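4.2 Preliminary Data

To establish feasibility before requesting continued support, the project team ran the inverse folding procedure on a target of 357 residues. The structure was first converted into the token representation described in Section 3, and no sequence information of any kind was made available to the design step. The complete token record follows.
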């Protein structure tokens, strides 16, 4: 492996937050929650943006030990064809969803770049905002997606521990630690307007993982200051393959992590998915979390035909309907927002200017 980027080991980027993450600070969880809530209100008000994932395919070429779609799983494989994509999008739109995240596994013959680009183009003709969570691509490929209407890319490093990363990614293109680590910057260089990053909590020691993630976010914010950056906090959920996390993350640590990130990064969207249970999601909304998934299906074709869909990537914990979830938000005087992006802004962002040093 080549040398790690300097920002990943730069302790100056995380010196203030490590004591808070580790619990060595005198600040209590309640104090952190209060500060995080105040910071959220100042920057985002009482709005919570909503989106939903759309799984285009469960084909994959990699052997991630923790994933239900890994290439050695025995479940049937399929991809959505053009008419099926349209049906799924129509079913999502009927729920009020206007912000969609298109997902695939790692690059395969069945679901390569051309397939993904065509799916983005179809989705952008229906949905105001389209983002993608898929395999790493080149700068030119990301520019092509941006030209078709893709405004955001989500890509998790999974774990920032290089040694553990190698053990967990048993084969396939995802084994390349640095290739994945450099992907957010290639996406932004290609004109993608926003990037979402995160670590899959439970794979490695949580304080070290959260610290590395914070350094990554700070680096991106400083280097690509025109772009939007968001952070997700996924914890491992039960999945086909039965992987058990070596470092389970409890609710208390996850709450602390969310609060610390909000205090340290007041302008960054913090995201919580339906991996988390209703009580935890309701509690975090407005305390730091500003973006959430709703009514999620983690199966291919799960919106149009929930009963006929196949194996899910992982089990969803919050299975409330969009209506139920919005009611819960409004009971906390929070306003759910299904559309906060207009297609008129689609297209690559200009990136000629160098970012802040």
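Position-by-position output of the design step:
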């Amino acid at each position: 492996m080549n040398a790690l980027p300097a920002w990943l080991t730069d302790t100056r980027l995380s010196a203030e937050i490590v004591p808070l993450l580790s619990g060595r600070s005198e600040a209590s969880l309640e104090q952190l929650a209060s500060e995080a809530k105040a910071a959220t209100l100042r920057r985002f008000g009482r709005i919570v943006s909503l989106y939903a994932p759309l799984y285009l395919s469960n084909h994959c070429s990699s052997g991630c030990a923790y994933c239900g779609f890994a290439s050695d799983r025995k479940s049937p494989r399929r991809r959505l064809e053009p008419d099926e994509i349209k049906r799924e999008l129509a079913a999502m739109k009927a729920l009020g969803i206007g912000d969609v995240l298109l997902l695939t596994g790692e690059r395969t013959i069945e679901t390569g770049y051309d397939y993904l680009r065509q799916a983005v183009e179809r989705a952008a003709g229906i949905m105001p905002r389209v983002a993608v969570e898929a395999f790493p691509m080149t700068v030119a490929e990301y520019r092509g997606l941006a030209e078709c209407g893709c405004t955001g890319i989500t890509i998790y490093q999974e774990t920032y521990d290089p040694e553990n990363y190698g053990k967990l990614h048993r084969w396939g293109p995802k084994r390349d630690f640095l290739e994945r680590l450099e992907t957010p910057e290639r996406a932004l260089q290609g004109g993608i307007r926003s990037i979402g990053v995160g670590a899959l909590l439970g794979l490695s020691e949580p304080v070290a993982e959260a610290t590395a993630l914070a350094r990554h976010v700070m680096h991106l914010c400083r280097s690509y200051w025109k772009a939007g950056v968001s952070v997700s906090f996924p914890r491992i959920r039960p999945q086909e393959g039965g992987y058990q996390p070596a470092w389970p993350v409890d609710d208390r640590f996850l709450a602390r992590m969310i609060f610390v990130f909000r205090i340290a990064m007041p302008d960054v969207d913090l995201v919580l998915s339906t991996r988390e249970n209703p009580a935890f999601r309701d509690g975090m909304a407005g305390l730091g979390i500003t973006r959430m998934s709703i009514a999620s299906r983690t199966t291919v074709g799960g919106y149009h035909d929930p009963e006929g869909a196949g194996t899910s990537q992982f089990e969803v914990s919050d299975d409330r309907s969009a209506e139920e979830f919005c009611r819960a938000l409004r009971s906390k005087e929070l306003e759910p927002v299904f559309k906060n992006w207009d297609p008129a802004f689609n297209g690559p962002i200009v990136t000629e200017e160098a970012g802040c040093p």
